[in-house]
Amino acid sequence: MAGDSPSVLPVQLVEQPRLQKLKEMFISKFGSAPKFYARAPGRVNLIGEHIDYCGYAVLPMAIEQDILIAVEPVQTQVVQLANTNSSYLDFSTSVNNIQINKTKPQWHNYFLCGLKGIQVELAEICTKSEHYIGTEGGGMDQSISFLAEEGTAKLIEFSPLRATDVRLPSGATFVIANSCVEMNKAATSHYNIRVMECRLATKLLSKSKGLEWRKMLRLHDVQTKLGVSLEEMLTIVEEVLHPEPYSTEEICKCLGISLEELRSQILSQNMQDVSTFKLYQRAKHVYSEAARVLEFQKICSKAPANALQLLGELMKQSHISCREMYECSCPELDRLVDICLQFGAIGSRLTGAGWGGCTVSMVPTDKLNTFLKNVKKAYYQTDGQRLAVENNSLFATKPGRGALVFVEA
Ligand code: GLA
User: Is 235 among the domain residues?
Assistant: First the structure.
């Protein structure tokens, strides 16, 4: 399943300025040299938003940009963490007593979650680890981070986890652009509400089709149990669910359960105060987005002459569905997508959880430089705050390799 690329790579530090700088900072902080360095790539999802936790395949790639960690194993039971960015304070704790405060997200929690995850068990460890932060993520990021290979995006399928190469047609480059709107998934409930809406839609659809709804958790399970296509699932959603938001009372009535049972058996702890849920729109997004992912893969493998146009169209539809049906966009992301399309992108969409964060655009390689210049002018140079971070906010990238450990050669 994992690629052939080694996950431990001997490197000459003189040829790796970022590692060299990290080593120097480590020595000045801790007084000894790191024994190894770990790298995790950034990721971008090309298509398939908010469907991994519903059980559907997604299509991300790792990018060349990354996060580096320098490590020195120690004999004591104390883990000491420091960040090269001085606005993130040093932190240390005993490994025997890891406390993760979910209500107060801090940078070192992500490291502690990894440690806590290892202490539980080693299978699909990182996806589970993220749940300790409080976000019920679907595993896309962790899977692509480990399974990525240079030069290819991957179709990631779940249960069981598997990855298939998706070679992107030549002639286009992917450009990431940061909207400069920050959305902290762990500190807000947007993301988990969507997970819950999908779970409730699963239950209502299952009940109406006579399935064992209590056991059903993901929209994918409904499709599998019914043995129908994604298109048929879209018709079923239209027949069974209504576009008006559902109140908790109506959900209880549909499922034939009490409010207490809904609260204790289905709604998670932080969902208890939410009073309305949009089930029709969320299910429509998930089934249509899942179909777009498969279509994207098919176009890449058949590579017809108009492949780029077809892929671009799917990306545009994906953004519209995220904006209208899933409501995970924001005005800045919509504006950025419009600007990217206006200046020559064949397709453009929000990527990742949304409500802020980045867009991914597919740009004809021969128009790349003018595209970057124009987007810079239209989105970043019009705003002082955006301009200050613009260098790291707008860049072209290629499918990069996955996570690995560096040791000094
Ligand atoms: C976040 C989550 C992923 C996925 C995306 C939306 O990035 O970590 O698991 O759900 O949102 O596609």
Answer: no
- Is residue 95, in this structure, part of any structural domain at all? yes
The CB-side HSE value for 333 (13 A sphere, CA atoms) comes to 26
CATH number of the domain residue 98 falls in: 3.30.230.10
Q: Which pLDDT band holds residue 11 (cuts at 50, 70, 90)? A: very high
Q: Using the mean position of ligand 1's atoms as its centre, give its distance from the Cα of residue 137 in Å.
A: 6
* Cα gap 283→170, rounded to integer Å: 34
Which of the listed residues 110, 133, 141 should we mutate to test ligand 1's pocket, taking the one with most ligand atoms within 8 A of CB?
A: 141
Q: For residue 140, report the distance from its CA to the centre of ligand 1, in Å.
A: 6
Average pLDDT over residues 364-377: 97
Average pLDDT along the chain: 92
Whether ligand 1 lies within 6 angstroms of the CB of 352 is answered as yes
259's tokens = 């409010």
pLDDT in tens, 374-386: 999 999 999 888 8
- The whole domain housing 65 covers 7-166+401-408
User: Using a 6 Å cutoff on CB, does residue 141 contact ligand 1?
Assistant: yes
Residue 293 lies in a domain: no
**Cβ atoms of 327 and 281 closer than 8 Å:** yes
Residue 253 covered by a domain: no
Q: State in Å: Cα 24 to ligand 1 middle.
A: 35
Measured from the Cβ of residue 20, the count of other Cβ atoms closer than 10 Å reads: 13
pLDDT of 85-99, one tens digit each? Answer: 999 999 999 877 778
Partners of 9 in the β-ladder: 406
Kindly report, residue by residue over 47-58, the tens digit of the pLDDT: 999 999 999 999
Q: Is the CB of 353 under 6 A from ligand 1?
A: yes
The predicted pLDDT at position 123 comes to: 47
Residue 354 CB–ligand 1 contact under 6 Å = no
Domains in the chain, number: 1
